Amino acid sequence: MKLRWLRMIFILTLILEMGPVALAKSDGMYERLKLFADAIEVIRREYTEEVDSQKLIYGALKGMLGSLDPHSQFMEPDLYQEMMIQTRGYFGGLGIYIAIKDGLLTVISPLEDTPASLAGIKTGDAIVEIEGETTKEITLLEAVKNLRGPEGTKVTITIMREGKILPEVTLTRERIDLPSIKEAKIIEDGIGYIRLIEFREGTSADLEKALKDLEKEGMESLVLDLRYNHGGLLDTAVEVADKFLPLGRLIVYTEGRKQSQSRRYLAKEEPHPNYPLAVLVNEYSASASEIVAGAIQDWRRGFLVGTKTFGKGSVQTVVPLGDGSALRLTTAKYFTPKDRCIQDEGIEPNFPIEIKKIVKEEEVELPSIPEEGKEEKERPDPQLERAIDLLKAWPIFKEIYSLEEEG
Predict the structure, then answer these.
(1) Which of 18, 138, 158, 401 is 20 to 30 A from 193, comparing alpha carbons?
(2) Annotated catalytic, 287?
(3) Given 312, 314, 325, 333, which residue is catalytic?
(4) Sheet order of strands, 303-306 included
């Protein structure tokens, strides 16, 4: 009886959404839904243990969305709430940005003075286990859910670094505040430096304040650091790029199957002064970071220094469902003003600067917390140094750049 009711719900829902005519022309959709209902019936009747029907439906939805692309996802209610937290600016957790890279749950960057950084977790580390459970095939939001939690609670993780499994480490979660801007300062000779680490609600206002403060201090050129910035909100990326581009300039456009998914985003505000601009990027600069970098590069407003970006250029639309769950569905792709597709392609910098990774044998184990008053010697930053040199030579470089633009 329950199965018949379940099958009826599927069919009625489909008819309401598509209409009888569309259903008849839906390439055998009715038969496929019957196949799905038959499979549920067999599982409920024959499986060794009684199975919760919601668990079956949720599992099927996860598989269905996961078969589309790496970024589409079905989110159970708690995962949906976790995603909403990401735009709030604070949460209980470890203090790391993570992503799925080459099939591994990878640390993009640890935030300074957080449980993760104090335990010695580094950029590029792969989290292979959380509480003894493998992270193989885990989704990003599931990982976030497992790593976050109330302040004061503990979580045990296992790290793989440079192909070697390290001893598991137990961390205590703390309140993590996510500032949009990590640093904003004059570094030398009127050259400003802003490290933007997140595109979320409030980022545009934070950047506006930082720019005005540095301009009051005599900033004559700017390094905008988007390295390890995994992205965020599309509208925020547009607002950030808008601060540097002339009115009416195209910042990014999206293309999808439906007309409503294809949009053009133009600069709407008066830009800041047209001072020389260098943008730092690397392989962990993704999504919103790539939108900003691509627009600045396409319009020759500035130049990019670093390594090729991540290549995440698709739009995910979140559709809430009736029980508190939601679909996170890829509905379009990003394109730069000059029609470059970001998805899987990334953005090539004008000045590629690779950073060699030197790993010593004794660095395999997680380092201990440095003694109070002792700090590691700051390592040189060749990408930043290169950007500074180019900004200092801007009068010469600008002429070459402009001739290249006209040609």
Answers:
(1) 401
(2) yes
(3) 312
(4) 181-188, 191-196, 221-225, 277-281, 303-306, 351-352
